[in-house]
Fold ABC transporter.
Amino acid sequence: MATTPAIQTEALVKRYGRSGATALKGLDLTVGEGEVFGFLGPNGAGKSTTIRLLLDLIRPTSGTVRVLGVDPRSSHELRGKLGYLAGDFVVNGRQTGRELLDYLGDLRGGVPRQRIDELAAALDLDLSRRIGTLSKGNRQKVGVVQAFMHRPPLLVLDEPTSGLDPFLQQQFVELVREASGNGQTVFMSSHVMSEVQQTCHRVGIIRDGTLVAVEDIDDLRKRAVRKVEVVFGSPPGLDQIAGLQEPSLTGNVLRGRLSGDADAFIKSIAGFHVTDIVSEEPELEELFFTYYAHPQEA
């Protein structure tokens, strides 16, 4: 039995002002229930506009939007089923973190204090301090807690780890994985490629208001380039090496770039005495930038 998509847009257009500047140009997007979906693109591509439309913070010029099966313009109940976090979490600074989270938890039907405490501990967040005294990074931690604490069916996250250090970014990744394991859907805009690689099932790449690609993250990994370094007992000739892009040989050390199937490369070095081999984790960033700059070449 088919499930209702968590997010679905059809021919979605958004123009701003009298000049008619177009932020979205007929966006067709479907995000499945329980999916972690990365929404990627350069600044000004239309990511935040899309998110604001999903949350009914702005209205479309034309086209349709469905969030958890309903039009966000006509459902007040939908808000309680969402967890939202922008890149800069701004609230009344006179409250403590505890006071704010208790208040928001009550609005959402009640959130156990233990749940709030567990999230705060994972992020090393002091809930007794007034929010106005917090650094941007600590204020963003409060935002992470309020988005995740009620375990909403759909999390909408717009550059969520802005201001967080690398350790806390990893804690955020664990929260996303936990949410995915619970069957929650996560729609996430991010410039942090490690987050995307570690959490997302699929990514949509938007450029100038147009969705230029939707890719399975595992397929992207297969196409991503790995840097390879091989140390030989005695150097082979470069013409004896197959499957390696941009090969170079310095003494006994072979360097190059490897993408896709590694079979031909492995077989070509198997006849030599290999003393060491290093293959870096493939990076997807170069593929993404290819889409951003030249989508027809990706």
